[in-house]
Each structure stands twice: as C-alpha cells, then as structure tokens.
C-alpha cells in the first residue's frame, strides 16, 4: 500500500509541469472567457461591463448567420476529415509497396504539411484566381471549362474550395501515421489470408483496415477537433465570404471579437462551440464504453 | 511472394500511377512558388500565367537574403521552434509516461481529460487574454512568450502521442529495474527512452513543424524586428496595395526547403517511430 | 549502438538549447541617458511600407536625420501589414501598452477614438507653425468635437483610371462623366474590344469604400451626426434619401445586368480588381494612385492608363482615404511623439516621400499620378467617426445580397439602413 502511495505521488509530480501549463495558459483564460460570456463587455467602452445573464447567448444564437456558420463548420469539418482520410490511406497504401523511388515519394508527400498555412493560403488563392490564375488558365485551355470560374468568389464553391486546399495541406499527417501503422501489420496475417484465397479487396477490408482501426480513430478524433477550431485557412483565403458562405464558428468568433469588439458575444459563441464539442465527444465515448462493457458482459455470460 | 506475376505487374503500375498523382498534387503549388521566385518582376503577374520563365533571375532570392531581415527571422524561428520542441518533449515525456503507467489514479485520468479539453479551445479566443498575461509577466517581445505559447498548445498532443508509444513498451523490463532499486526517473531515461528514440524523433518533428509554421501568436507577441519569426516576416511582403510576390515566394521556398530536407532525411525514423505507438494507438 | 548514439545526441541538444535557446532580451523602453541633460526616449513606431522599397530607403534616411537632430529620441520602427497591425493594436490597447505612434486605416479612427486610445493633439496642433498647410477637408475628418485626434500622413484619393486605348478602340475620346454615360459605354466597349468596360469590388475593405463613394455620388451618407451628438442612418426617415440610396444599388445591378462589369467582379476583392486592371482585363475602374506601382509589373498593359474624376450620379464625389498617423494616449512621451509626428508632416518629409499624395496643400506633383488625384480632394467623402467593424461588414453584405442573391435594390437599401442603425445601437451611439 505504501508503495502504491509513493507511486501516486510520483505520478502527480510527472504530470505537474503539463498541468501548470494547462492551468496557467489555458484554463485561466478559459475561465475568463466563460465569465465574459455572461457580461455585456466591449472593448469600445473599456472598464465598463455589466451582468448580462444569457443575453449574449440569445443574441448570438438569434444572429442572422449563426445557423449558416454552424452548418458550415459541420460541412467543413466533415468533408475535410473525410477527404484527408481517403487521400491519407490511399497514399499510405501506395507508399507501403516495394517500389523504386519510395524515399523520394515519401519526402514529396510531406511538403504540403511543412508549407506554412499563410503561405499556402495565399499561393492557392492566386493560383485559383479567375483571370490570372494558372489553374483556371489550364482548365480553360484543356477545355474542361468554357470560361474562367471564380472558385473562391461564388457562394456555391467558396467553402468547398477552401476545404480542398485544407485537405491538400493536412493529409500528409495521415499518410505518415497510417504508413507507420501499415508497416506494423504482421506479414503472416496477410499471407495466411492469401492462402485462404482472399482477394485484394477482402484483404484490404477484412484484414488491413481492422488493423488500422485504432490509429484511424485517434487521427480522426484529433483532426475533427483541429479542423473545427481552425481559423487561419478560411480567414486568409476568403475571410468567410462571399456573403458568409464560408463562415465557420471560429471565423464568427474572430469577427465578433476583433472587428466588432464585442467580447461578451464572442465569448458566449466560443462557449457554445466548446460545449457542443464536449457533448459530441462525451456522447461518443459514453457509447463506445457502454458497447465495450456490453460485449464484455456477454462474453462473460457465455 | 504472395502475388502472382500478372497481379504483381498491375499492382506496380497502379502504385506508380497513384504515387505520381500524389507527387504532382503535393508539389504543384510548391513548384509554382519556386517558379514565381525565379521570375523577374514583369513576368510574375502576367495575364498569361505560365510555368515557363523567359528570363530566369535570382534577383528575388538575393533581395530576400541580403536586403531584408529574412536571415534574422529564420534564426529566430529556429531558436523558438527548437526550444519549444525540447521543452514540450521534456514535459510530455513525463506526462505521457504517467498517463501510460498510472491511468488508475483519478488525478492522472483527470489531467488526461483536461488535456483533451484544451485542444478544443480555438486559439483565436485566447489571443487577447494570453497577450495580457504575457504583458503582465513582461514577456512580450521575447522569444519566451512564443516558446511558452507553443509549448502550451503542443504539450497535450505530444503527451498523447508519447503515451501511445510508452504503452507498447513492456512493463516487465521496468519491474526488474524497480526491484533493483532504480529510481523512476532513471528507469525512464535508461530503459524506456532509449528504446523509444524513433518515437521521440517523430513526436519532436511534429512539434517542430507546428511551431515553425505558427503565425498568429508570432505576429501579435513580437514587436521587435530583431525578435520576429519567419511566418509573420514572410507576410510582411504582402503590402496593403501591392504584394511583392517575388519576395514572398522566394522567402517561402527558402523557409520550406530546410524542413523538407530534414523530413526526407529523417522520414525512416519518423515512420518507424510512429509505427511503435500505432500498434496500440 | 546507433540508437545509443542518437540518444546522446538528443540529450546534448536538449541541454544545449535550454542554455542558449532563450537568450533573447526584452527591449528597454527608456533609460536614463546623459546626452544634453534630457531624458533618453524611445518611441515605438508601427508602420506599413513595403520592405525593400524605395519608400523604405527614403523613410529610414529621414528617420536617421531626425534622430541626429534629436539625440535624445530614438525611433523604434516596426513594420507590419495593416491586417496584422489591426489585431496587434487591439490586443495591445486592451493590455494598455500600445505603441507611441502608428499608421493605420482611416476605418479604425472611430473605434480607436471610442476606445479612448488616441491622444488629444489639439494643444500641439494649435501651436504648430504649419497648421494652415493641411487640407481642411482632411483635418475635419480627423477632428472630433473640436479635438484633433490624429494626423493625416498621406492621402489615398480615388479617381477613375482608364485604359485610353480600349476607349479609343470603341470610339470614345473621353472617359464617362456620369453613371449613365458609363452604362451606355458598356456594350460598345465590349463589342469593340471583347472586354468589359468597368470593374467593382464586392469583398474586402475596398468594397465598402467604393459603396460609400457611390452613395455619396447620389448625395446620401451612411450615417449622419445628429443634434444630440449621436449618429443615425436617416434613409428610412426620408423617402427622398431612400430613393437616392436605391438608385445607387440599382446602378450596381445595372452594371452587372448590362454586362458593363465582368460576371465575377461582383465578388472581387481589391487584389482581383487591381490585378485585373493592371493586366488589361477590363477598361476602367475607380482606384488609387498606388496603381502606379503596377507599371513595374505590367509595363505594356499599363502604358495607356489615364486618370479622370469618377463618373457620378447627381453629385461629383470620390472616396477620400485619409491615411492617419495615430498618436496614442498611453504614450509616456507625448511631446517627443508630437515632435516626430509633426516632422512626418513637414514639407521636407512630405515632398521627399509623399510627392504625389501628400495631405499638404503646398506639396503637389504635376504628374497625372499626383495632380490627377489631389485635385479631387474637395469632392472627397470619408467614413463617419463611428466604430465601423459591423457597418463595413453590413455594407459588404448589402452588395452580396444585391448581386449574389439577386434581391431588389429598394429592399437592400432598406435592409442596409436598418443594419447600420442596429450596429450603432449596439455601440450605444444611435441617435433616438
């Protein structure tokens, strides 16, 4: 028992530095955000604030573009993560083959990930421009398009285009992680399957994919969070426009805080977003643990 | 070995086709950046954009290297990123180890929960509070402010990554050392870490890239030209009315190439390192 | 073995960087100096010229000269783009440590003033010998309740820029003077050159500046100062004004429907507007004198560009962008800050660095890039001195509602009027 106590103390010492960082630089500002969300507070009248109750929350939710931003956040996050995963697994499978120049290809695939977001955003914005952008120029020359299309300027395509660029930038992280996981899939497993006469498709879905399950879940989990809270990409490429067509919740938070100086409203919108994410992930974990427990119970019963 | 000859042939063709596609997809913007960087000013914004250059020039690179603060920015980015990476790693090693071995304690579990929570906070929102905090502690305009901010946002993920890796290190080895009376810290440094080198490398590369590319805190916390980092430095070429694309692009190419080279060189370790943790995830 | 080697390397790297990694120093704001008995003062100056430009070279030389003449003052320059500067200013003002002097957009004047961030320059200004040399129209826009709250450092007046050759090709010797003429020229230019006659913006800061100008050309403003000192958009109270505002939106709609502007011009930002004009994708637009810099990038296409007053509806008007020099109230050295700020406005500085776009009436250049713009100063309109973040967004949205969603011009005018008043109300400055 005493040894266990000692271990406990030691464990706490180990997480202490991480905890200090968290408390000081995240939790403390976060508490401030929560407090501010119940205040009428704007940077334009510094020093003046008053208790607002839920007024900020109501105003934010009633805002004309709240539902658009919420929906956009969902689409942006879902499409980004889905696209990244598909590209990630395809490239990882290809890179896992024994072909010449594998090192080169592996190096090349990492490049989008190491280009700073600001630079990537500006470069793509230029390449996608209707009249002097190389992409439109090519598409017209090849004959796919009759005339240049303003990808970032039309309400239908603005968000999708930014999503496309975001996928371009983020998928390499999937590639590396999935490739790593693929390499630890035991060869014997696949060989055994071949002997059993499994085709390529069966091998992929029945053997490889299940082996990648835990990595995939972690990857997707992290990226859902990161994508949902991402702000830079959209801001740099469209500033949320045209007519709020690519505005997500973080963009709206930024606009409220830094353009309209309404700290109270920005804080309440941020709190709403945080609570939604906590509920989402909380529900997911609850369901999976319940499932696991059920399976355990059932196997214990038999 | 497991495929017949015809199958093997086709697999190879498909593999190359896929790899080629990805190479083009990934490199396309980067090549555009490089080509632009090599163009003279009257070819950059032409009405007929093209990958061909009539009269290539190194003028943009020269300008960026010798007439601007690029080299200072580069050095600053290097200092900040390396320092943030190392501190992150030190903190995450202990935290990750604790999460891996002592999850049974409630406090440790709570810490893990708090860390995943911290990932859900949009950094935009913490900008002003963090700025005020940095100012109170007189850290604005120093590399410390950035190192602290980057470390804060990186520790949770690196901790989880390392936890995954440590999970795959068998506990029996440690038990033996424990019985011999080794201290826990010595166990970590002498037994666990040496066999986790590739994982440490993977984690630190990850932390490094994220600090290297960070933009917002970089420009808000630093007022002093001499302390400024690379990404805010590059965006400076984007004026209000006219953008100096030649300089932006050559600065970006110069910023990307070293990192890309490091990755190409270390990718074997990187993948090996990620693989170590991925068995359990 | 190799792993052990890597590990040692790793540990070495850690200790190495922990030691040297954080050797950065914080700047010292002011230190007790000897000099000529005066206190040593460092002024933080945030500016936004292009790094590596001629402007930078000249400016730094002038700053050096200033420091030599004032050995107790040191100017600490920081270069930032306007986007970066805005966010940094907001953060630093809320933390109570803004720079001493900065550049900025005229759109920020209202907000910075409301935040109480700006120094009252009136006493210094009244003592200043060059006081009468600044354009009155411009100074008015930086004066609130009789107090001078900022100084103009250069003017970004907008004028009509046109590719003369394209107009000639369509048989026109002169640019349009009114909206009607412009709309009429649209199809003819398209027919003769295959290119559109005009360009507008629908996004970024430029679009609200343009809309402000087009509204002024119909003789309406977005918000007026009322007798109680607060502001209000009066369109809804006054059917005549609403009618004129509607005409403005109708003009936007006509431009698009009659093919006078390229289809995607409706969501162009300033980069698209400027670049497409520079590469000769369309014939005319309303733009600023910075377009001269594009001559270097597109020498052939820009060769035939000429300048004229913007076409108007009922009243000649243009957007007068006053680029302010903000001096912050939190400065510990207001006297020295003024000293430097007034040097920036001196004839010596202005004629060297701002020969074509100076707010001084005695610095005028004969070139079309100078006179062509400064001669329009009297017709210039500016934004009212209210916080504009929400209002400029509403103005952008109104263009999008009109051109993207195809809403009726009258509805859009009514919507914008309401949106502006709501925003004023939020900020507590709506006149009831």
From TrEMBL, chain A:
Record CDD domains: TM_PBP2
Keywords: Cell membrane, Membrane, Transmembrane, Transmembrane helix, Transport
Cellular localisation: Cell membrane
Entry membrane topology: Multi-pass membrane protein
Membrane-spanning ranges: 12-31, 74-95, 107-129, 149-168, 215-237, 265-287
Pfam families associated with the record: BPD_transp_1
Domain of life: Bacteria
Location of the ABC transmembrane type-1 domain: 70-287
Family: Belongs to the binding-protein-dependent transport system permease family.
UniProt name for this protein: Sugar ABC transporter permease
Species assigned in the record: Halobacillus salinarum
Lineage per the UniProt record: Bacteria, Bacillati, Bacillota, Bacilli, Bacillales
TrEMBL record, chain B:
Membrane topology: Multi-pass membrane protein
Domain ABC transmembrane type-1 stretches: 74-266
InterPro entries named in the record: BP-dep_ABC_trans_perm, MetI-like, MetI-like_sf
SUPFAM superfamilies: MetI-like
TM region(s), chain numbering: 12-32, 78-99, 111-132, 144-166, 187-209, 245-266
Record flagged with keyword Transport: yes
Subcellular location: Cell membrane
PROSITE patterns for this protein: ABC_TM1
Primary location recorded for the protein, binned into one broad class: membrane
Organism superkingdom: Bacteria
A Pfam match: BPD_transp_1
Signal peptide annotation: none
UniProt keyword annotations, A-Z: Cell membrane, Membrane, Transmembrane, Transmembrane helix, Transport
Annotated PANTHER family: INNER MEMBRANE ABC TRANSPORTER PERMEASE PROTEIN YCJP, MALTOSE TRANSPORT SYSTEM PERMEASE-RELATED
Family: Belongs to the binding-protein-dependent transport system permease family.
Listed name of the protein: Carbohydrate ABC transporter permease
Organism ancestry: Bacteria, Bacillati, Bacillota, Bacilli, Bacillales
From TrEMBL, chain C:
A Pfam family this chain is assigned to: SBP_bac_1
Listed InterPro entries: Bact_solute-bd_prot1, SBP
SUPFAM superfamilies listed in its UniProt record: Periplasmic binding protein-like II (SSF53850)
Keyword ATP-binding: no
The UniProt record lists the keyword Signal: yes
Signal sequence residues: 1-20
Keyword list, A-Z: Signal
Family matches, as Gene3D superfamilies: Periplasmic binding protein-like II (3.40.190.10)
Protein's UniProt name: Sugar ABC transporter substrate-binding protein
């Amino acid at each position: 028992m005493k040894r266990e106590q000692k271990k406990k103390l030691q464990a706490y010492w180990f997480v202490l530095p991480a905890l200090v960082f968290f408390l000081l630089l995240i939790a403390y500002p976060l508490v401030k955000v929560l407090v501010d969300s119940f205040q009428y507070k704007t940077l334009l009248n510094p020093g003046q604030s008053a208790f607002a109750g839920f007024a900020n929350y109501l105003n934010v939710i009633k805002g004309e573009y709240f539902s658009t931003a919420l929906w956009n956040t969902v689409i942006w996050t879902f499409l980004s993560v889905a696209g990244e995963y598909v590209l990630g697994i395809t490239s990882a499978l290809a890179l896992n083959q024994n072909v010449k120049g594998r090192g080169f290809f592996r190096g090349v695939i990492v490049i989008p990930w190491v280009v700073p977001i600001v630079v990537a955003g500006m470069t793509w914005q230029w390449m996608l421009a209707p009249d002097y952008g190389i992409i439109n120029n090519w598409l017209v020359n090849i004959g796919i398009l009759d005339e240049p299309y303003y990808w970032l300027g039309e309400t239908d395509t603005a968000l999708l285009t930014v999503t496309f660029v975001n996928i371009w930038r983020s998928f390499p992280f999937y590639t590396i992680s999935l490739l790593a996981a693929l390499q630890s899939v035991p060869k014997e497993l696949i060989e055994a399957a071949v002997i059993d006469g499994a085709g390529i498709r069966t091998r992929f879905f029945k053997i490889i994919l299940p082996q990648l399950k835990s990595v995939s879940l972690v990857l997707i989990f992290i990226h859902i969070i990161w994508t949902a809270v991402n702000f830079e990409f959209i801001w740099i490429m469209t500033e949320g426009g045209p007519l709020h067509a690519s505005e997500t919740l973080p963009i709206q938070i930024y606009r409220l805080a830094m353009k309209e100086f309404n700290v109270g409203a920005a804080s309440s919108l941020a709190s709403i977003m945080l609570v939604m994410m906590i509920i989402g992930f909380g529900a997911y974990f609850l369901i999976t643990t319940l499932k696991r427990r059920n399976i355990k119970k059932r196997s214990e019963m038999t | 070995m497991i495929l017949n000859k015809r199958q093997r042939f086709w697999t190879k063709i498909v593999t190359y086709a896929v790899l080629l596609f990805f190479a083009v997809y990934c490199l396309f913007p980067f090549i555009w950046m490089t080509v632009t960087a090599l163009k003279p000013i009257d070819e950059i914004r032409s009405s007929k954009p093209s990958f061909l250059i009539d009269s290539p020039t190194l003028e943009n690179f020269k300008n960026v290297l010798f007439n601007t603060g690029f080299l200072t920015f580069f050095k600053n980015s290097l200092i900040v990123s390396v320092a943030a990476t190392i501190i992150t790693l030190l903190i995450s090693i202990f935290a990750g180890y604790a999460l891996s071995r002592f999850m049974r304690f409630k406090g440790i579990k709570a810490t893990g929960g708090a860390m995943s929570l911290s990932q859900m906070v949009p950094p935009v929102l913490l900008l002003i509070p963090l700025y005020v905090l940095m100012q109170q502690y007189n850290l604005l305009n120093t590399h410390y402010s950035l190192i602290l901010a980057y470390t804060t946002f990186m520790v949770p993920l690196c901790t989880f990554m390392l936890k995954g890796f440590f999970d795959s290190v068998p506990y029996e080895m440690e038990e033996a050392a424990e019985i011999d009376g080794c201290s826990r810290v010595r166990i970590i440094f002498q037994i666990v870490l040496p066999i986790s080198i590739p994982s440490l490398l993977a984690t630190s590369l990850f932390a490094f890239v994220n600090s290297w590319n960070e933009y917002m805190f970089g420009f808000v916390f630093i007022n002093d030209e001499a302390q400024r980092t690379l990404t805010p430095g590059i965006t400076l070429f984007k004026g209000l009315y006219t953008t100096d694309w030649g300089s932006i692009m050559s600065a970006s190419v110069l910023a990307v190439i070293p990192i890309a080279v490091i990755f190409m060189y270390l990718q074997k370790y990187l993948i090996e390192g990620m693989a170590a943790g991925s068995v359990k995830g | 073995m190799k792993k052990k080697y890597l590990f040692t390397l790793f540990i070495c790297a850690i200790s190495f960087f922990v030691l040297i990694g954080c050797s950065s120093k914080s700047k010292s704001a002011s230190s007790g100096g000897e000099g000529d008995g005066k206190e040593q003062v460092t002024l933080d100056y945030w500016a936004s010229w292009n790094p590596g430009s001629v402007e930078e070279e000249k400016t730094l030389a002038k700053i050096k000269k200033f420091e030599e003449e004032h050995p107790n003052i040191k100017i600490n320059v920081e270069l930032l783009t306007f986007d970066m500067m805005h966010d940094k200013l907001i953060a630093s003002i809320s933390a109570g440590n803004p720079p001493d002097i900065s550049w900025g957009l005229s759109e920020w004047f209202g907000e910075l003033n409301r935040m109480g961030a700006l120094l009252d320059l009136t006493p210094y200004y009244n003592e200043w010998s060059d006081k009468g040399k600044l354009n009155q129209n411009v100074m008015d826009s930086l004066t609130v309740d009789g107090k001078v709250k900022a100084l103009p450092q250069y003017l970004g007046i907008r004028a009509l820029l046109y590719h003369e050759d394209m107009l000639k090709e369509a048989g026109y010797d002169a640019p349009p003077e009114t909206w009607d003429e412009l709309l009429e020229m649209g199809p003819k230019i398209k027919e003769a050159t295959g290119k559109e006659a005009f360009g507008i913006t629908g996004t970024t800061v430029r679009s609200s500046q343009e809309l402000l100008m087009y509204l002024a050309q119909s003789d309406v403003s977005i918000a007026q100062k009322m007798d109680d000192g607060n502001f209000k958009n009066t369109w809804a109270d006054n059917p005549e004004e609403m009618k004129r505002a509607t005409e403005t939106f109708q003009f936007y709609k006509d431009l698009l429907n009659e093919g006078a502007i390229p289809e995607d011009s409706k969501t162009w930002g300033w980069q698209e507007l400027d670049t497409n004009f520079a590469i000769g994708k369309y014939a005319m637009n309303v733009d600023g004198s910075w377009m001269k810099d594009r001559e270097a990038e597109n020498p052939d296409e820009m060769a035939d560009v000429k300048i004229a007053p913007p076409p108007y509806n009922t009243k000649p008007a243009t957007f007068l962008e006053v680029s302010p020099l903000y001096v912050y109230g939190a400065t510990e050295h207001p006297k020295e800050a003024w000293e430097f700020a007034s040097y920036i406005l001196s004839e010596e500085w202005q004629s060297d660095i701002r020969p074509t776009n100076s707010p001084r009436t005695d610095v005028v250049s004969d070139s079309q890039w100078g006179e062509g713009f400064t001669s329009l100063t009297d017709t210039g309109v500016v934004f009212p001195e209210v916080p504009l973040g929400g209002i400029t967004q509403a103005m952008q949205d109104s263009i999008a509602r009109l051109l993207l969603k195809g809403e009726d011009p009258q509805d859009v005018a009514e919507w914008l009027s309401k949106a502006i008043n709501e925003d004023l109300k939020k900020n507590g400055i709506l006149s009831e």
